Amino acid sequence: MSSSFSSDLKLELMVTGENAGTWGDLTNNNLNLVQQAIAGYQAIDVASSDVALVMTDKTISNARNATLKLTGTLAANRTVTIPNSIEKVYNVVDGTDHAGYTLTFKTVSGTGVLLCEGNCYVLYSDGTNVEKANEYRKWRTVTASETVQAGAQLFVDTNGGAVTITLPASPANGDEVHFIDSRFTFDANALTVGRNSSKIANATSDLVVNTEGAGFGLVYSGSDVGWTYMEK
User: Fold this and answer.
1) Distance (Å, rounded) from C-alpha 224 to C-alpha 227?
2) Which residues of the chain does CATH 2.60.120.640 include?
3) What is the pLDDT along the chain (232 residues), one digit of tens a residue?
4) Which CATH number is correct for 139-231, 3.90.1010.10, 1.10.10.10, 2.60.120.640, 2.60.40.10?
5) Which of 91, 83, 95, 98 is nearest to 52 (CA)?
6) How far apart are CA 105 and CA 97, in angstroms?
7) Which whole-number Å values give the CA distances from 10 to 29, 56, 75, in the listed order?
8) Cα–Cα dist 64/36, whole Å
9) DSSP class of residue 6?
10) DSSP state at residue 39
């Protein structure tokens, strides 16, 4: 009977009495694969195309890494996929500039998780889909208009002119976006929050904020009311 391979990490499972004289090399290779799954790190450029990560039998593979940093300026909506049937935890850092596009981490056949520019995630695959276990949200400064993703925490600098931040398309219940007037200039150059077809505070109009020093958060609570103030 020949070796088989584990379903998740693709380690070589040797049969007693097999591979005489090569057990040391094969075992060391398995340990290297386990090391990659526990401590491996890789930066992956996703700017120009979708990326299909692979998990190959008994071979160092990019889908086996514990931590993945996604990089580059997106030129279109991008998707990073892992193979179906893999059960594994991933630390994922969204180090990209979304440039108004979306970035999704998923299994080949699943729906996956939409990532937010600058944030860090603990994600897990249950063999069918990728789910979010935790999200570490980072504040970042914006000085120009853009469309953001759920989880964005924004220091909005309107010192150079008015800025429009467009909310995510097709939001899910519980999605949040936070804003702070980082230069105390909303009174001179207003922040406009574009509703992107969803209501804001039960209104079918964009939200214009011209209060100096304003800081507030919005949470999506369903299509009836749309985005609702968390604090004002």
Assistant:
1) 9
2) 139-231
3) 588 888 888 887 877 767 666 767 888 888 998 999 999 999 999 999 999 999 999 899 999 999 999 999 999 999 999 999 999 999 999 999 999 899 999 999 999 999 999 999 999 999 999 999 999 999 999 999 999 999 999 999 999 999 999 999 999 999 999 999 999 999 999 999 999 999 999 999 999 999 999 999 999 999 999 999 997 6
4) 2.60.120.640
5) 83
6) 16
7) 11, 7, 33
8) 6
9) -
10) H
Q: Are 180 and 155 in contact (CB under 8 A)?
A: yes
Give yes or no for a contact between 159 and 142, defined as CB atoms under 8 angstroms apart: no
φ, ψ dihedrals at 38, nearest 5° = -90, -40
Please give the structure tokens belonging to residue 122: 């603990």
Report residue 209 as tokens.
């904020």
Q: How far is CA 69 from the centre of its chain?
A: 10
Please give the single-letter amino acid code of residue 11: L
Whether residue 217 contacts residue 176, with contact meaning beta carbons closer than 8 Å, is answered with: yes
Whose CA is closest to 122, among 94, 157, 100, 152?
94
